[in-house]
Amino acid sequence: MYKGSFWCLFMILLLPNLLQAQLTVIVEQSPSYTPAEDTLYLVGSFNNWDPKDDNFRFSSLDGGQWQYDFLTPMPDFEYKITRGSWKKVEGGSLAEPIGNRSYVYNDQLRDTVRINIAGWEDLKEALPYRDTILVRITSLPENTPPDATLYIVGSFNGWSPADPDFRMERDSNGFFQAMVPIRNQLTEYKISRGSWTTVESRTNGLARPNRRYEYQDGSNQPIVRIEVANWEDLAGNRISWYEIFLLLAAIQGLLLVVAINSFKEAGSTTSRLLSLLLILLSITFLARIGAFDREIFQQYPKILLVPDLIYFTYGPIFWLYLRSLQPKSGRQWHWGVHFIPFIIAIGIYLPVIGMSNFDFTTQVVNLELRSFFIGSAMAGLVFSGFYWVLSHNFLKRLQLGTDDESSPVMGFLWTVFYIHSLCLLVWMSTYLIGFIGIALNQHWIGITDRMTDATWLVLAVGAYTMGYYAMRQPQVFRSPKLPIMAVNPILAEEAVGRLELSHDIEHSTKISSSANNSGAVAPPLSDLEKLEQVMQEARPYLNPGLSLSELAAQVQLPSHQLSKVINDGFEKNFFDYVNGYRIEAFKQRIRSGDHQERTILSLALEAGFNSKTAFNRAFKKHTGQTPREFLREQQE
């Protein structure tokens, strides 16, 4: 009885270990070219990584499968399969090195691990291939170490950067070359000096896309000649003229933001929108520079995504900036609607943003994300084109009430708009050339990349143009109101209260009094009389930003009807009519002797002109002499 109890207790204590020990490893499939005489071994942390341990030898099963059963409890471990040595260890499908396999204990009493072996590192020559090509390096950068060992690495060997089977040898002419097997229609490859840190790069040291070779049947071992431009680890951080150009544009944009916000009207909607636009441009320029810097890109590769912000923001911000220049009409703008596409774009970008830096960099370098970037930029081009149409139509309407020839503000707006148009044209041409290349089965990536760079250069010219206007004509940034912003709105406002005109202002029709001395009511005023009354009593011409629509509102006539009244009654257009009053106001100031203490330009500004050029042109046109000739005539 006691003996039977002992064995029961022994089995109870032993049973958990026996059940836990039931771990089976089955090799379900191995390469067809595996030598029939070879035996498979399990090697791992449990046997000190001995590649030929008979205690861990697989048993052969029917159907080409192999099995090993653990006889002792096994915790978590890492392992690989060999054929008896580390030279004969398993690899990837192209015989490239692979990482260790791992097993994680999952509390199951019985467990089976089923694996497939893709290839063997020592049997590359047994892999099937369609043909071979000879890759020859005809040019190396001067910084290449004289004792460097070069390797060709690519899709044919699992991207192993120091594969001895693909070490490049010198031919009789001193050129490095290697024979490459062609296993697929498309072969991608690069040149390395033995590691991924010493791989070839573009001229500026940035990672270059994989080289590509498309196989054509019957090519009969062609020779592919390539040139290595630079090495990633030896390129240094040379700054190109392209980066300097963008950097200066970014700095100028930020300085202009400071200048705009130092004006008296800094808190206006116009100044805030223009500042936002300049900040956006500066950020994208700096991000573009960072993406071209090897060390910055390696540490923060997703900086490459930042410039894409401009696709869905520049157009709406510029259009809203134009709208803000118009006097408030009580109409409410739903600003958020214009940025819905931007929010949608951020949502689409989230999976890319969530990638690890390694995966993101790998996919960027190997052009795996190129289709994503092309699609995003194309959507941005269409979106920007829509706002280009809106901006163009708005500027045309604005021009109807603005002296386009003499207004520096309108000149500034049209100049920026034309630069933006050129940017969109180059951008669109990039796609056109790319599509033509695809249709002709040509890879014009180098051309389209340069045209992309050109698009950014044109955009940077826009920032330089704003800086030019800030230095030469700062008045275009000072006032938030249009149709034409005043050069010096303070002087113009003060002039309204000070300026007294003489009764010799030229006009064709005298204004009838609203009531005579006897108290009789005068007949209703004609449209022309209404106009003259407003011009003499309200003096709207002192406003440098006066437009046809604003004057029509004061006269209480439709714009087209007021234009007809001016044309029929005075045989002048709107601008010549208003400038006639301004010139007479200027003459009166001269006759009053104000020019002895003030400059001619300041008197012209107070009379309603918005620039020296506009004043000189209008004065010559109306009087047949220059302002200085008139001044000398008055002094005689």
Write the layout of secondary structure elements.
Layout: H1 2-20, E1 22-29, E2 41-44, E3 59-60, E4 66-69, E5 77-82, E6 90-91, E7 101-103, E8 110-116, E9 119-120, E10 131-139, E11 151-154, E12 169-170, E13 176-182, E14 186-192, E15 200-201, E16 211-214, E17 223-227, E18 230-231, H2 241-260, H3 269-292, H4 294-299, H5 314-324, H6 340-353, H7 357-365, H8 370-400, H9 408-439, H10 445-472, H11 489-498, H12 527-537, H13 548-555, H14 559-570, H15 574-591, H16 600-606, H17 612-623, H18 627-635
Parallel strand pairs: 1-8, 10-17
Antiparallel strand pairs: 1-4, 2-5, 3-4, 5-7, 6-9, 10-13, 11-14, 12-13, 14-16, 15-18
Describe it for me?
A four-stranded mixed sheet has the order 3-4-1-8. It has 18 helices and 18 strands. It is of the alpha+beta class. The chain has helices spanning 2-20, 241-260, 269-292, 294-299, 314-324, 340-353, 357-365, 370-400, 408-439, 445-472, 489-498, 527-537, 548-555, 559-570, 574-591, 600-606, 612-623, 627-635; strands spanning 22-29, 41-44, 59-60, 66-69, 77-82, 90-91, 101-103, 110-116, 119-120, 131-139, 151-154, 169-170, 176-182, 186-192, 200-201, 211-214, 223-227, 230-231. Helices cover 44% and strands 13% of the residues. The chain folds into four domains: 2-120, Immunoglobulins (Immunoglobulin-like), CATH 2.60.40; 129-231, Immunoglobulin-like; 241-477, Rhopdopsin 7-helix transmembrane proteins (Up-down Bundle); 489-509 and 527-635, Homeodomain-like (Arc Repressor Mutant, subunit A). α13 packs across α14 (559-570). A hairpin with a 5-residue loop joins β3 (59-60) and β4 (66-69). The protein starts with a helix and ends with a helix.
